[in-house]
Amino acid sequence: MAVIEAQGLVKVYRSRKSEVRALDGVDLEVEEGTVLGLLGPNGAGKTTTVRVLTTLLRADAGRATIAGLDVGRDAQAVRRMIGLSGQYAAIDENLTGRENLWMFGRLYQLSSHDAKGRAAELLTRFDLEKAGDRVAKTYSGGMRRRLDLAAALIGQPKLLFLDEPTTGLDPRSRLGMWDVIRTQVREGATLLLTTQYLEEADALADEIAVVDTGKIIARGTADELKTQVGGERIEVVVHDHDHLGRAAQLIAPDGLATIDEHSRRLTIAAEGGAQQLVEVVLRLGEEQIRIDDVGLRRPTLDDVFLALTGHAAEVEPDANDTRTDMTSEGESA
Amino acid sequence: MNSLRIAVADGIVISWRNLKRVPRIPELAIFAILQSIMFVLLFAFVFGGAIPIPGGGSYREFLMPGIFVQTLAFASVTTAIAVADDMTKGLIDRFRSLPMARSAVLSGRTFADIVYNVGLLIVLMLTGLVVGWGVHSSFVDFMYGVLLLLFFTYAMAWIGVYLGLSVPTVEVAQQLGFLVIFPITFLSNAFVPTETLPAALQPIAEWNPVSALTGATRELFGNPNPYASSSFPGEHPILMSVMWTIALLVVFMPLAIRKYRAIDR
User: Fold this and answer.
1) Residue B190 and residue B196: Cα distance in Å, rounded?
2) Do B98 and A87 touch (CB under 8 A)?
3) Which of A333, A126, A95, A105 minimizes the C-alpha distance to B86?
4) Chain-centre distance of CA A144, in angstroms?
5) Å from A57 to nearest chain B CA?
6) Alpha carbon distance A84, A49 (integer Å)
């Protein structure tokens, strides 16, 4: 049975000057015990989708249910089943980690005793035991995120929403966060997570839905998407600007090379992997074309976007972000 | 009945977390008190000698009720800042995603403000006793006065909530708060008898809710109250203050609740 079902979600933000269709007909289905990754650039509609599904925002049109309950009409029942960890760690900085978890547990309608027990359990699980009685203001970015995730889990929700769980974290904290999320998944949590990174969706999600300008434009496993994009990429930077055209002809006879004139960079899809890289280097060498750099890299979100939409992933300010911008800057400082 | 129990329990949890702020950021309360003490010293010792009280009486006894009202009015700015902070940090969204009573975020907030302001008031009264203020009425009248002050505080807290939910950032809450509260407290009888104001400003000062409450407090505490002039609010400060507080509540409580409910649009 699908735990999340959404059909034709539309959300339009109107101001005097403009009209932004944050959601333009989003359809979603997430089966119990699976992980769906919503992948897209800033402003694609990821956060808006999460906000509608978690009862924080009313959609202008369309319908969404969580375990058969309508997010609008049965909002309070929906809230009993979900846990949300938003884009910015939403914890009370003046309370300790333990107090935060106790408070959210109480507000999840646990008894004071149960909330205490659950808080202790989660602090241990998220490696916050030692910091548990320190005021959250003193926590690092990674610790805040872990506390935020712990807060989302306090009521043992059936369904977990994680909105960009690793944005703004350093690489080490990001890996730590991935471990924590993976543990949840292993224990059978149903999860919807949003991310800007293909790598992250790849690492955590069973299925990926690519979001662009308020619509789901593709859906599949990470492998399926990568195949659509054409697997890995070979990038060559030629030394001499005049050689760009000829080099492109040599390494991509079918004409499917992306040429960046400014950085003298050629990018082609490389189904043949490392072997194809060797051939490219040899062929350019035979023709005496000097190169400054060459390499094989995995497709990025940009490549997925380019392949799916024909345009690069544009970064637009998210309509919801106006209030929270300041916080994100504050946290990274 | 069950939903009422949840509403009360959740409201208490929210009050608890708002009050935790006080010991965790002691500067907030300390600066609020220091600011008031500064006003007490400034007016009691610097300007006070130049301000005669019509009908006689000690200026310091005249001053303290004005200080009480001013401090409580400024406390609403603290509320606005705290609410704006919760909004920008995403805490309000977290609360809204929990299966808690919808009313608790605001009821808990405003209740915590009353508790906080009781604390402020006690410190200020002790300060007043030190500089020569005193209560010269019955205990019952004194308690009426205190209740009137707290009732006003409650209305001001709702104004603070409404402001906090309406502004885009914490800084704006701070600026806007001071912009509104400063003129209201100074264009009143809190520091000078209204008779000394220019004729054009006198009616404004007389009908000002701050003046009504200050006058009522002076009357109930038995402090000099030259405000009792021929104007209607001057003759009925207690009635006026109750009416004003009810009016502020009737306007700002629904506004704040509506604003809170409209966050999901």
Assistant:
1) 12
2) no
3) A95
4) 18
5) 4
6) 13
Whole-number pLDDT of residue A323: 36
Q: Which of B151, B176, B5 is nearest to B83 (CA)?
A: B176
Q: What is the largest CA-CA distance in chain A?
A: 76
Write out chain B in H/E/C secondary structure. CHHHHHHHHHHHHHHHHHHHHHHHCHHHHHHHHHHHHHHHHHHHHHHHHHCCCCCCCCHHHHHHHHHHHHHHHHHHHHHHHHHHHHHHCCHHHHHHCCCCCCCHHHHHHHHHHHHHHHHHHHHHHHHHHHHCCCCCCCHHHHHHHHHHHHHHHHHHHHHHHHHHHHCCCHHHHHHHHHHHHHHHHHCCCCCCCHHHCCCCCHHHHHHCHHHHHHHHHHHHHCCCCCCCCCCHHHHCHHHHHHHHHHHHHHHHHHHHHHHHHHHHC
- B109-122: per-residue pLDDT in tens? 999 999 999 999 99
A86/B90 touch (CB, cutoff 8 Å), yes or no: yes
Q: What is the CA radius of gyration of chain A?
A: 23
Q: What is the pLDDT of residue A333?
A: 32
Contact residues on chain A for B98, CB-CB shorter than 8 A? 79, 104, 107-108, 155
CATH topology of domain A232-297: Alpha-Beta Plaits (3.30.70)
Considering Cα of A225, then A3, then A142, then A140, what sign does the dihedral take? Answer: positive
Q: What is the pLDDT of residues B127-137, one digit of tens each?
A: 999 998 999 99
Give the burial string for B166-176 (b: 16+ CB within 10 Å, else e).
Answer: bbebbebbbeb
Q: Which long-range contacts (CB under 8 A, 24 or more apart) does A66-71 make?
A: A66/A3, A66/A4, A66/A159, A67/A1, A67/A3, A67/A158, A67/A159
CA distances for B127 relative to B23, B65, B87, angstroms: 21, 12, 35
Type of residue found at B244: W
CB B78 within 8 A of CB B117: no
DSSP lists the bridge partners of residue A191 as: A35, A160
Distance CA A26, CA A45 (A): 9
CATH of domain A2-227+310-332: 3.40.50.300
Which of the 8 DSSP states describes residue A189?
A: -
Cα angle, residue A224 at apex, residues A21 and A228 outer, rounded to 5°: 70
Tens of pLDDT, residue by residue over A64-96, are: 999 999 999 999 999 999 999 988 889 999 999
Residue A260 forms beta bridges with which residues? A265
Q: Which residues of A touch B168 (CB under 8 A)?
A: 322-323
Residue A240 tokens, joined: 């001499």
- H or E element that contains A309: helix A301-309
Q: How many beta carbons lie within 10 A of that of residue A140, not counting itself?
A: 12
Kindly determine whether residue A107 and residue B100, on different chains, have CB atoms separated by under 8 Å. yes
> Across the interface, do A109 and B99 touch by the CB < 8 Å criterion?
yes
Comparing CB atoms, the residue among B17, B89, B96 nearest residue A95 is: B17
In 3D, which of B180, B148, B7 has the Cα closest to residue B79? B180
pTM value is 0.84
Q: Token pair of B169, please?
A: 């950032």
Instruction: Spell out the domain ranges in chain A.
Output: 2-227+310-332, 232-297
What is residue A300's three-state secondary structure?
Answer: coil
- Pick the closest to residue A151 from A188, A100, A117, A201 (CA basis): A100
